[in-house]
Amino acid sequence: MRTVAILGRGESKTDVPHPDLRPGLEYWGIGQAHRDHAFTLDRIYEVHDIDMLPHPNYDAEHWEWMKAQPEGTTAIYMHDHYPVVPCSVRFPVEGAKALCHNIRVGGEPTPTFTSSIDWAFAHAILERVDVIELYGVEMAQMVRDVPGANGSGANMAVGYSTEYVHQRPGAWGWIHHAAAMGIEVRLPADSPLMSKALYGYDSMRGYQMIRVEAVREIQDAIRNYKDEVSGQMRTLSGQYETEKGDDELGRELLHDIERKRRMLIIADGAFNALEHLTGESAIEGIVYRMKIEKRKIEYGNSKNLKMSALNRVLGRLEAYHECQNEAAWQEAHKQFTQEKIGLFIAIGAEQAMDWLIADCDKQQHDYRLHNPVSDFHMEA
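User: That's the sequence. What structure does it adopt?
Assistant: Structure tokens below.
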């Protein structure tokens, strides 16, 4: 049985098994995936135009790596074989496009390839592999910062890469195409790429919905909450100015001020996550549960990544403190603060999705438009 692992650069890239554990598994990397693994990949799919690759705005380091690979190592599939890239192999584009000959738009055959993933899938189909495993292929990267309010300095990635929005339908299509050809396609258990719901047959939980207006009511509650916490923070700051001569009381006040600041950042995360959700759904006027659940997974993954980053920076802080490297410690401390803010934002975003899911649960078997009735609360 021939099994290939298609390797993207998303979060699940770390789940790919080492060759020592899976002898015979073929590793097909997308673009710069070679950077993420200590072992040599069997293939790289680099389908961008060769004139684009050396440009510094693309990835000059990746281009230099491609040129440096000796012939007979990693096969690099490109538009053609180029002497400057000794390992380059012409991609069988004609055969891949022919797989779409029965798809016609306006009577014309219309091959659909929206990302390098699609080309790799087509190649696997052409080569009649038995199993395709996906690692690092989530297509759910968050982008675009929105400044925090109340002086918290919090920034939240509330948009999602328009590139991935455009590319996802192609990946869905090629996953199903491969499966229809008898190829087993394996994805991680928590992959946001696929939905497990069978429309009309399974529980309709995923199709529960909440009005956008109701989500905005929660945002209004968050605004009121932030105003209340900001007032408490100002009061505590005034008390600290008066009592800071008392070391014990001063420490307690600083601790309370820091806790209020953390609560504000978490609230920013919740507010902006809801803002993104309502922005996406403004035309329809409703938000579906399955979209909320996908966002919860993404924010949860972001939270875990931030926690890991915090632990790494904390280790560096301790090391710099021991060796008395003040400059390096200060720089690491700045990064620690930023990672901590990012963690609180992700906590708030995930918590906001939990509120909406809890409201969906209250619908039971009523799948009509619903206004959430949960009591607003913010966990800090």
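The chain has two domains: 3-47+91-186, 205-361.
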